[in-house]
Amino acid sequence: MTTPPRIGITGATGNIGGRVAAALADLSPVALVRDPARAPAGFEVRQAEYRDHESSLHALRGIDTLLMVSAHETQRRREDHRRFVMAAAEAGVRHVVYTSFAGAALDATFTLARDHAYTEDAIRASGMAFTFLRDNLYADAAPHFVNAEGVIRGPAGSGRVAAVAQADVADVAAAALRNPAAHAGATYTLSGPEALTMAEVADRLTVALGREVRYVDETVEAAYAWRRAAYDAEQWQLDAWVSTYTAIAAGELAEVTGDVEGVTGHPARTLEQALTE
Ligand SMILES: NC(=O)c1ccc[n+]([C@@H]2O[C@H](COP(=O)([O-])OP(=O)(O)OC[C@H]3O[C@@H](n4cnc5c(N)ncnc54)[C@H](OP(=O)(O)O)[C@@H]3O)[C@@H](O)[C@H]2O)c1
Prior knowledge:
With about 280 residues, this protein is an alpha/beta fold. The chain has helices at about 15-25, 55-60, 75-90, 110-125, 165-180, 180-185, 200-210, 220-230, 235-250, 260-265, 270-275, and strands at about 5-10, 30-35, 45, 65-70, 95-100, 130-135, 150-155, 160, 185-190, 195, 215.
């Protein structure tokens, strides 16, 4: 009898990884976490921090199929990701499912999408099989764009965003991890069922949150100026925040795809569903 492939799930203390771990509980996946004390109950737990080659290598031994959830944004995320990818290849991982970003490219308008292009390249170069999940903005996070006055302010103009529910990203990841051979080499662009302007997002949030939300367009210069004044943030962080909106303005987050339904068999969740589930 052959041993079933062993699945490893990073980010298991977070939203996406936690959902995927729960969805695959019947396959006894290994939870790879930075802090075992916060690991979800019921799983074999191993400690791994992406930048730490030794702990990663140790944790990845015996893992065949790996969900690599992109790390929290830092200035050194690319290098941390590259180290973890190298550790995975060295440990003998055969297939990596990676949470990338819609339109990932080294010259993407959204600066953080460039990290994802870099990581995709590292995974391709590693020789491991892969499945890339290029997630649009998370619909679940939309309320975080609203300030205390009920305003979403940013230079998105009348551009559109096809935000995706995290539950759908997790469903696609779980499907790919269950049957990696069927998804080897695939790059899925994961979107919601429609592309909305920020004004439309504000209207939807007004109903969903039960309080008035407005979208206010602003210039790129104004976007930098108030964020610089309001937060003690480094330049890369300001660039990431502002370019979230300029990427929408440029149409780089507007693509609606059928990939969620194609992989999971169910339609992509709406913004309202993402907020209420
Ligand atoms: N598409 C979008 O709109 C969008 C928005 C925000 C973020 N993201 C990206 O999508 C990822 C997943 O989203 P999420 O909601 O599941 O995030 P989350 O709830 O913050 O979970 C992130 C997970 O990654 C782990 N992690 C972070 N940095 C790590 C590192 N350097 N080494 C090892 N593990 C690390 C965290 O561990 P700890 O619990 O120890 O921190 C946590 O388990 C985020 O990490 C971010 O890269 C995308």
